[in-house]
Design a protein that fits this description.
The structure is a homodimer. Chain A has about 450 residues and is an alpha/beta fold. Chain A folds into two domains: about 100 residues, Urease, subunit C, domain 1 (Roll); about 300 residues, TIM Barrel (Alpha-Beta Barrel), CATH 3.20.20. Chain A is about 40% helix and about 20% strand. Chain A has 17 helices and 18 strands. In chain A, strands 1, 2, 3, 4, 5, 15, 16, 17 and 18 form a nine-stranded mixed sheet that branches. In chain A, strands 6, 7, 8, 9, 10, 11, 12, 13 and 14 form a nine-stranded parallel sheet that branches. In chain A, a hairpin with a 7-residue loop joins β1 and β2. In chain A, α2 packs across α17 and α4 packs parallel to α6. The longest helix of chain A is centred in the last third of the chain and has 18 residues. The termini of chain A are far apart. The mean pLDDT of chain A is about 95. At the A-B interface, α2, α10, α12, α16 and α17 of A face α2, α10, α12, α16 and α17 of B.
């Protein structure tokens, strides 16, 4: 039976190409938006949500997260990228059991949807990726998920994380077959080679080929820190982007997290191949990586998404925080006009959808798109007065202002409560698992 | 009759000199902490607040805010400091009526206390300062407040904001006499010359003298942007701090907001005179001013407080945001070890108290200090797992996690609801007043 849902009387920030904003209603039939406006006529028996004094907008899309890392929140402060990986994150990932991964992903997705993120591009760890899919299945978030691929046999990588090229590829394909397109196409597989320093050339070449064969997204890290860039350049004798490009790891189906430091030749490759960048401002600050010059990238028409990265390098998974920070940190270098607030909001909506190849489905509120919608309380002592909804959403709103979250037409969060899992239980288990993990390592 | 209040079973982050943390209870008698520990014996009829799964800590102290500016939130984006002042903030302040100032201050203080800030150093505008005091009186926040002093007759300053030296001083003294030490010493006067570009030398010299005569704090802006510094240096032919020092505007009773850019000679003056710096990271980013090198200042034993500045340059008044940002933004320049989280928490607690000359009263949880205490919910999907309470508070907690706020022994916020004013009414009036103000200017 068709389900009808109507969101009434909200300030609708469509985040579409024309940046339309209006006060009105949205009619959702099953998983899709069928009508929007101030005079729509949904059936009388439709479920109604009052959005008076709220902003209604597309759910946030975070195109670089590591949900499996969430149990290391607060355990990995004050380290720069490579030390952070070697001293903490790899040993952490190496010790993760299937149930650790399950609870880490569940905790992350609880935080994410409660904070208004409806869609993620997630990089897992080497194993137990099925538990991340299962968590996304259960919580109801829209997700592209991939197991980490890392087949270089190096001393710095703990034994349990070492895999050979064949295993890495075979497991990726098996996960693809099991999960891709499942749940009304809410779940997708994305290939996730960790980064060039942990992957053989063979793995990267084969990954590029599989991506073409199966029409899959590739999600990897690139040019995060100067230290990493130097190591890669020393090993390969070309810039990192030239290397990736030569292996087939550039293009409209490739999302490169970070790109804090790019040489001109590398920017050109990204621009010409329409490769995507995912900006992670908190993580780039906390790991001392630097500040990606996003205003320059945007001027060159490079598409930029946004992501909180992982809890141990952030220490939140808060899309509103990332937007606010993305807007603020550019000003000292590029003036107070560095980025317009609607440009920043776009990173977390339509540009994210572009990375996921889903602009026909998500990223803006438009008729025939999926109903991935959040309702943000707008009447708080910290959000009034209001002048411009983009300014409000980017500079002022908090993820705790998110009142209701609808994904694929289903109400996932209602009045700030998650409906699809027991948050208290998740919190309790998460702390227990973290205690055990850090006893082990 | 004595009132007894007990906060039970919280994780008590004392923020004292020894950084003591323990699980236990706090007994408050009237306005003061009389006992703390795991085995205290308050009377049976004491009011009890359960703080299980919460962090109990001193209320945040923000030592640079402009509560009167709150109605311009969201109306002043994408401008650098001097344009922001000339094009928006001065015209805004020039048009403010007494009731505008009253509602702006009430809105700000509502946001502040709901977000865990229990004490502020506030700079008003030229007039209507009594309404800021009245708002602090009504809301119950602890406050040092001063009218802005700006007696330079310059074209760029709107007529209604121009005052002569005598008026400026006389009104300051009158306000001091009316409010200083009132409400069980919860309200204080602080002299507030705006900044050197808007004050005559005579005003600054007289202000310095009054500060000595009346034992008052001086609260001003200094070295916020390179543009302002250049203008001052051109006019005076010495560095700004040399100028302030020569006029008597340095010392333990002087709080300089910003100090983003300081020459060595200026740092030395600040260090040797024990003048305080107030760090305002959001504001410094948003106005494109720069990033104050706080790790260097701390190494030189300069005392640093923290503040959100005003809503139009932030756009929040959120102490947790400022702490998080203060921690993150130093890493690209000073490594991931730039600042320890307890150092950042201190900026917002004991160092703030030091600026206010109140370390014997506030800034940490200690027996015989005032009961300015906040209870922060610690069991959320975005705050677990927890490893280190300073990391949790600085990187992870949100102002919306603040559950209860006690100021001067009184419960001001209970279960996230303000008890001392009608928040809905404040929000409603604030939007109405803002609409009117921006119709006028």
């Amino acid at each position: 039976m068709t389900k009808n849902l109507v969101i009434q009387n909200g300030l609708i920030v469509t985040a579409n190409e024309h940046l339309d904003v209006f006060t009105g209603d949205i009619w959702i039939k099953d998983d899709c938006i069928v009508s929007m406006g101030s005079t729509i006529s949904p059936p009388n028996d439709a479920t109604r949500i009052d959005a008076t004094n709220c902003i209604v907008m597309p759910g946030l899309i975070q195109t670089h997260v590591h949900t499996c890392q969430t149990l290391a929140r607060g355990y990995a402060d004050h380290l720069s990228l490579l030390d952070w990986l070697k001293q903490l994150i790899w040993p952490y990932e190496a010790t993760l059991t299937a149930s650790d991964v399950a609870i880490a992903a569940k905790l992350a997705m609880t935080e994410l949807v409660l904070g208004g993120t409806t869609s993620i591009l997630d990089m897992g760890t080497v194993r137990h990726t099925e538990h991340i899919f299962q968590a996304a299945h259960d919580i109801g978030i829209r997700a592209h998920i991939g197991k980490v691929m890392m087949d270089k046999q190096e001393d710095m990588i703990p034994k349990p994380l070492q895999e050979n090229t064949r295993q890495s590829i075979d497991e990726s394909i098996a996960l693809y077959k099991q999960w891709h397109g499942k749940e009304n196409e809410r779940l997708h597989y994305a290939l996730a080679p960790r980064f060039s320093l942990s992957c053989t050339k063979q793995l990267l070449v084969e990954t590029a080929q599989i991506a073409r064969d199966y029409n899959l997204l590739i999600h990897t890290h690139a040019n995060e820190t100067l230290e990493e860039i130097e190591l890669i350049q020393k090993e390969l004798n070309v810039t990192h982007l030239e290397y990736l490009h030569s292996l087939g790891l550039t293009g409209k189906h490739v999302a490169l997290a970070h790109c804090v430091h790019l040489q001109d030749i590398e920017r050109n490759i990204i621009k010409e191949t329409e490769t995507h960048i995912v900006h992670c401002p908190s993580s780039n600050l906390k790991l001392a990586s630097g500040i990606a010059p996003t205003p320059e990238y945007l001027k060159e028409h490079i598409n930029i998404g946004i992501g909180a990265d992982g809890a141990p390098c952030n220490n939140n998974l808060d899309g509103f925080w990332e937007m606010r920070l993305a807007a603020l940190i550019q000003c000292p270098r590029f003036t107070a006009k560095a980025l317009q607030t609607h440009q920043v909001l776009r990173m977390a909506t339509l540009s994210g959808a572009q990375i996921l190849g889903s602009t026909d489905q998500i990223g803006s509120l438009e008729v025939n798109k999926k109903a991935d919608i959040i309702i943000v309380d707008n009447q708080n002592s910290h959000t009034v007065p209001q002048n411009n909804p983009y300014s409000t959403l980017v500079y002022t709103s908090r993820s705790s202002d998110v009142r209701d979250v609808i994904i694929d037409g289903k109400i996932i969060v209602k009045e700030k409560h998650l409906l699809t899992a027991d948050t208290e239980e998740t919190i309790h288990h998460a702390q227990e698992h973290a205690n055990e993990i850090f006893k082990r390592i």
